[in-house]
Amino acid sequence: VLHRSVSSTSIGPTMLKVGFLGGGRMAHALAKGFISAGLTKGENIIASCHPDDVVLADAFKGIGSTVTFNNKEVARGSNVIIVSTKPSVVPTVLTEARNEISTQNLIISVALGVTIKQLESLLPKGSRVVRAMPNTPALVKEGASVFVCGSAASKDDANLTKKLFEAVGACEQVPEYLLDAVTGLSGSGPAYIYVLIEALADGGVRMGLPRDLAYRLAAQTVVGAGQMVLQTKDHPGVLKDNVTSPAGSTAAALYHLENNGFRSAVIGAVEAATNKSKEISKAMEH
């Protein structure tokens, strides 16, 4: 069946209408990224949020968008519908909006643990569904996002999804079975890095550095090390060896980290978050 698809080539900046079912911080970050990348305009965005959520409603109004408490209204006025509610609310929200959704719409869900199969079962037959997993650094356009295409999503839909999420960082298409592990690594990962930054700064303060300087140095060290991996494409082990002089201070520090199970603690954190994500997905099935 041929239909007029919403594609990255056929929709211009003034035409792409984006609706957010759920107007949380991630939704607002995505909306700002889409606008700054020239993919849409503020007045072409509509978001639904809880009537009590005045701060987030004002944030969407601040970028020129429409705010509503009616999920049907969001679906009715959008080419691309982004489901950005809490996972437990997804069935209710999609059931409410279902009659306004057709194969004309591209549905992108960023709800944790809600599978393509579950999304497709809640939507009209043939709905074009994409499941995406961004992370919170999307708020500063440094997100690490992945996405999975549903059974009716086209190559154009994949291209548009990639373009949308590249507006707030890096984005890659993956098979769905990797989503729980992605959640464990990049989805929850920023929290591990914040703990690392805090610990680095605490170490600096313990050794006499002023706290504000310690936080700046720690944060920039993490940013710089990440960029070294991405830009040089060298193995992290090679980059680590390049910093480690024989009998030097870095070698002493690395020995302390190995002695205290640093690697296994981080690996275990990714495993624990992955397993929790699997639990959430299973709970959503019932």
TrEMBL record:
InterPro entries: 6-PGluconate_DH-like_C_sf, NAD(P)-bd_dom_sf, P5C_Rdtase_cat_N, P5CR-like_CS, P5CR_dimer, Pyrroline-COOH_reductase. One of its GO terms (biological process) is L-proline biosynthetic process. NADP(+) binds at L21, G22, G23, G24, R25, M26. It is found in: Cytoplasm. Its EC number is 1.5.1.2. It catalyses: L-proline + NADP(+) = (S)-1-pyrroline-5-carboxylate + NADPH + 2 H(+); L-proline + NAD(+) = (S)-1-pyrroline-5-carboxylate + NADH + 2 H(+). Pfam families: F420_oxidored, P5CR_dimer. Keywords: Amino-acid biosynthesis, Cytoplasm, NADP, Oxidoreductase, Proline biosynthesis. This is Pyrroline-5-carboxylate reductase. It comes from Graphocephala atropunctata.
